[in-house]
Design goal:
Elements lengths: L3 E6 L8 H4 L10 E2 L2 E2 L2 H8 L4 E8 L2 H5 L7 E4 L4 H10 L7 E5 L7 H11 L4 E7 H7 L8 E3 L2 E11 L5 H9 L8 H7 L1 H8 L5 H12 L3 E5 L12 H11 L4
Parallel strand pairs: 1-4, 1-6, 4-5, 7-10
Antiparallel strand pairs: 2-3, 6-9, 7-9, 8-9
């Protein structure tokens, strides 16, 4: 099985991070979670995956992040935005493809999630992990997520992405142009075209339909990977998430 390079996005937004400060640090990736820095949890899952051959953690303060991680995990400086960081890595001739991208706040990431994602994502130029709302609500009825609604279901991101080759630079360029509105989703559809936007708004297009249209515009195979484990759709972005994830880890949720 050909391996992949895993990238862990562990950067901080500009300005003061009140969430991090409320947990005694200025870096979100270092927020304590179940007795260890949050970034250590997804890194441990990646280390346990037979698919992952190397791990690079990207952050504005890589030395502080490196201090809490096992040896053999590389840390590098990130740029001002996620898209800018990925553009630089994609342009680097030393980059070993494919790239598996996740985030430092994906505290419930597991080797099983990674393996399921791999089995459906390999061969694509770009693959994006999602969890369908009904699946997550059955497991966590009160969890609050950001939902993108399409024909056939509503989805939240699973913070798992496959970038297959340097061809993905064109998709990252589009992402960079709308990065400030990534939570809204619709700005990206406007960039793709008004008919796609209308089709998604009226829910006559599935998530896969929309990504296929984006892919045709960019001449890329872009896939949605729906993950069976609803916990793949839970990240730690606020205090409610932190309490929920600690309860899940402790077996209380």
């Amino acid at each position: 099985m050909k391996g992949c390079t895993a990238l862990v996005l562990a950067g901080s937004r500009p300005g003061t991070d009140a969430f991090a400060q409320g947990h005694g640090t200025d870096l979100k990736a270092l927020i304590p979670l179940a007795g260890e820095p949050m970034v250590a949890r997804p890194v441990a899952a990646l280390l346990a995956s037979p698919w992952v051959t190397s791990i690079i953690v990207l952050a504005q303060d890589p030395d502080r992040i490196a201090a809490v991680l096992p040896g053999g995990v590389e840390t590098r400086s990130s740029d001002s935005t996620i898209a800018a960081t990925l553009e630089r890595i994609c342009a680097d001739p030393k980059t070993a493809w494919p790239l598996l991208v996740t985030t430092a706040d994906h505290a419930l990431l597991s080797p099983e999630m990674i393996d399921e994602f791999r089995s459906h994502a390999l061969g694509a130029d770009v693959a994006l992990g999602f969890v369908e709302r009904r699946n997550l609500v059955l497991r966590l009825p009160h969890a609050k997520r950001t939902w993108l609604k399409f024909k056939g279901g509503a989805y939240t991101g699973a913070n798992l992405f496959l970038l297959g080759s340097p061809k993905v630079a064109r998709a990252i360029s589009l992402w960079r142009s709308v990065e400030q509105d990534r939570k809204k989703g619709w700005r990206l559809l406007l960039e793709v075209g008004p008919l796609t936007m209308i089709g998604a708004a009226l829910r006559v297009l599935t998530l896969r339909d929309v990504l296929a249209k984006v892919g045709r515009r960019l001449d890329l195979d872009i896939r949605a990977v729906e993950l069976s484990d609803p916990l793949a759709g839970v990240d730690v972005d606020k205090d409610d998430d932190h309490r929920l994830v600690e309860a899940i880890i402790a077996g209380r949720a």
